[in-house]
Design a protein that fits this description.
Layout lengths: L6 E5 L3 H12 L3 E5 L2 H10 L1 E3 L2 E3 L2 E3 L2 H4 L2 E6 L6 H5 L6 E10 L28 H5 L5 E14 L2 E13 L7 H12 L3 E4 L3 H22 L3 H6 L1 H21 L7 H10 L6 H7 L6 H15 L4 H16 L4
Helix pairs in contact: 7-9, 7-11, 7-13, 9-12, 9-13, 12-13
């Protein structure tokens, strides 16, 4: 079991992947990036930049050029994951840890989960099982990111606020590798928490962004405007109550009420969600990992989801019209 993470591969060197990669490079890790296009060219010629700090990294469009890594950080957008995962094989050895720093419910959600849905394949996020076939479940450690970053230009990352990483084994076990990874991330400057049930942390983050993300994509509104409209705010609360009931059925209850979470979001001020930024940039949106999967889990658990269904239908239609889904 690997507890030495000196060689780090970054798959998806965008806002979050670039931020994590730069801070790990600063902590002394050798950083290797799987990239393409303008990002690849910039990384090869100018390195990876975070704020005023610049780091030399190895970068290639071919995973075979980079070789087996101790740690692979996967930070791509969910719609791109199946294709990217099929290219990752040369990065992953028997003891490589694959840290999934992505939004939404991941394909491994029910791996080592126990109970009724142990090992259940979520079709919304991995319909053909391609991701699970490409990334061995035993290599995965989950990660929930609580930070806001953006890309100023290819390979140039800006950190806005938040510094939290929650990591955890899908099984919930406090293994030597997850403890060692937590120590590395802490040394790199992240506010790191090792979770005893990473699925709960995934679900709690989803509970907030599964609503404001697609609504912002539909309306173009920042989060303060979304929650400042009483009718929209009530609609958001109804969707959240459906997700809360689903969580209770699968063993990850949420103690809060929607209004509690609204207060947290309001304190962040007026900001554009990641999904709105993707719409404005003409990029495919992460609708399946944030909303379609909730509908699927509602069907699986027998929980009615009329408000979630309405949100999904409208968001999906708008995204299809724009060519983003």
């Amino acid at each position: 079991m690997n507890t030495d993470f000196s060689r780090v591969g970054i798959v998806g060197c965008g806002a979050i992947g670039g931020w994590i990669g730069a801070k790990l490079a600063d902590a002394g890790c050798t950083v290797n990036v799987l990239a393409r296009g303008a990002t690849l060219k910039t990384l090869q010629t100018q390195g990876l930049r975070l704020g005023a700090t610049q780091h030399a990294v190895a970068a290639s469009a071919q995973a075979s050029d980079l070789g087996v890594q101790d740690l692979v950080v996967v930070a791509v957008k969910a719609p791109a994951l199946a294709e990217v995962a099929s290219q990752m094989g040369p990065l992953i050895g028997p003891d490589t840890v694959v840290l999934t720093a992505m939004n939404g419910v991941p394909w491994w959600f029910f791996q080592s989960f126990g109970g009724t849905w142990e090992g259940h394949q979520l079709h919304a996020v991995d319909p053909n099982g391609e991701i699970a076939a490409s990334i061995p479940a035993k290599n995965v450690i989950g990660c929930v990111v609580h930070a806001s970053c953006s890309v100023d230009a290819p390979g140039v990352i800006r950190h806005h606020f938040g510094n939290g990483l929650i990591i955890g084994e899908p099984s919930g076990q406090a293994t030597p590798r997850v403890q060692a990874l937590g120590e590395l991330l802490t040394r790199a400057g992240f506010a790191t928490t090792v979770s005893a049930q990473i699925q709960k942390d995934v679900w709690y983050k989803l509970w907030g962004n599964m609503t404001v993300n697609p609504i912002s994509a539909l309306t173009g509104a920042t989060t303060d405007l979304i929650l400042g409209d009483p009718l929209v705010r009530e609609f958001v609360s109804r969707v959240m109550l459906e997700a809360k009931e689903i969580g209770a059925h699968i063993g990850i209850p949420i103690a809060q009420e929607p209004e509690d979470r609204h207060q947290v979001t309001i304190k962040l001020g007026a900001f554009k969600t990641s999904m709105l930024q993707d719409v404005e940039a003409g990029k495919a949106i992460e609708l399946d990992a944030l909303v379609t999967v909730v509908k699927e889990l509602g069907t699986l658990t027998g929980v009615a989801t009329p408000f979630t269904d309405a949100l999904l239908g409208l968001s999906r239609l708008q995204a299809r019209v724009r060519g983003l889904y």
